[in-house]
UniProtKB/TrEMBL annotation:
Residues 480-524 form the Light-independent protochlorophyllide reductase subunit B-like C-terminal domain. Substrate binds at G416, L417. Component of the dark-operative protochlorophyllide reductase (DPOR) that uses Mg-ATP and reduced ferredoxin to reduce ring D of protochlorophyllide (Pchlide) to form chlorophyllide a (Chlide). This reaction is light-independent. The NB-protein (BchN-BchB) is the catalytic component of the complex. The gene is bchB. This is Light-independent protochlorophyllide reductase subunit B. Keywords: 4Fe-4S, ATP-binding, Bacteriochlorophyll biosynthesis, Chlorophyll biosynthesis, Iron, Iron-sulfur, Metal-binding, Nucleotide-binding, Oxidoreductase, Photosynthesis. It comes from Methylorubrum zatmanii.
Amino acid sequence: MQLTVWTYEGPPHIGAMRVATAMEGLHYVLHAPQGDTYADLLFTMIERRAKRPPVTYTTFQARDLGGDTAALFKDVVAAAYERFRPQAMIVGASCTAELIQDDPGGLAKALGLPIPVIPLELPAYQKKENWGASETFYRLVRALSGTPVERAPVDGRRRSCNLLGPTALGFRHRDDLIEIRAILDRLGIAVNVVAPSGATPADLGQLGEADFNIVLYPEIARAAAQFLEKAHGQPFVETVPIGVGATTRFVEAVATLAGVDPAPVLAGAPSRLPWYSRSVDSTYLTGKRVFVFGDATHALAIARVAAHEIGFRLVGLGTYTREFAREVRAEAALHGIEATITDDYLDVEAAIQAAAPELVLGTQMERHVAKRLGIPCAVISAPVHVQDFPARHSPQMGFEGANVLFDTLVHPLMMGLEEHLLGMFRDDPEFHDGAAPSHLGHRPSDGTHAVGRAPAASPLAPAPAPIRIEGEAAIQTASWAPDAEKELKKIPFFVRGKARANAERYARERRLPLITLETLYDAKAHFSR
């Protein structure tokens, strides 16, 4: 394990909480020390849920370690059942309680409760949140989906499917569901069960009645879908419908499994993204350098949208979801780049600096990194903060999701262009903040400045000549002369960081303690060769 200020994923029991919180009639008893209840804030504060998660903690303290913590756990499980009367329970241990090795599953089984009790073995020191959510959902489906059922003949009846993957604290999961349901309704396909979100343990027992499954978020639902395919003979669609192209492929794949015609849905798909990509205005975006990082589902989908539907140039692609590293590396190779597979935000920051993108698409961590580097950024993946759970309808999936993505990817660059123009003209004698309207400006005959006009700036003093130094001091970053710093600000914001880094590298290699205007232009000429 590693101590860090930020983390992309919590421990696996947070993933289990996401599944339990999304469902109804399910209760989670977590063997955990006092203090681990911080996880409630993730749902009540960040996701703004109206009720706390259905989780009961044992909250043992240091003095309890000298006693019988196993008995404490059994008492808490029995009390939670009596209080909440759930349809099913899941039990497990947090990363701290895992060290005690009390065997929550065996202890709960010994109580003989009249409901299913599913034990979770979530190795907190080897796995993380998304894996924990996937494992929890898989265990629930395996325990509660029941025996295979004989489905009615397909002729003359409406086909049905299950929607798998949406959880609590999921990035735009609520809104994605609305879009996918609308598409399926237009195709004439019934939705049998949505799980985990909104499902009860009894609903999981009806999963086998559907003709096929749709995996919306592979990190969460792939393992469960593979089990249902093997145990219940249900094929599944795993095309993630993010972007116009992927949504079109998704509709075609679903229509093929259901034996229906996709043409009515695909005809006149309601998205403005293809129109803009063909417009003259889009030429401003063509070839913009973009760095994408997030969970595998969103990183892969957004990278394809950025490269193939908007015309950006992908200069960075990565994920913190190590279980999907192979797919991300394969996608990165198609763009001639090396994937960034890491869960250390400092490594991601270094990769962003090295790639020198003009736009970053990532998590809330990349938002902070990009702000510090002066690069436009948009959030496209969890982990996110409260502003990324909007009250309005804001999906990423489906054709309406493509419209939202269009705004998400384009607006930061457009606002960045405006910011650059403001910065470029801020010091201009006619356009600076203190200048009066041009029709009022004139120079009186006495030689004084016009009323409301700022006096002309005095010429800058000549910059001192570069001084060469030797020894240890040469490895330090050179300082900037005032005229060079002013000239640097004229460079567009999205490449200013790269220009600064190149000039400092040029000065460091030549042991120059001061970067002058001449040094800046020499560095530009050197690195442009």
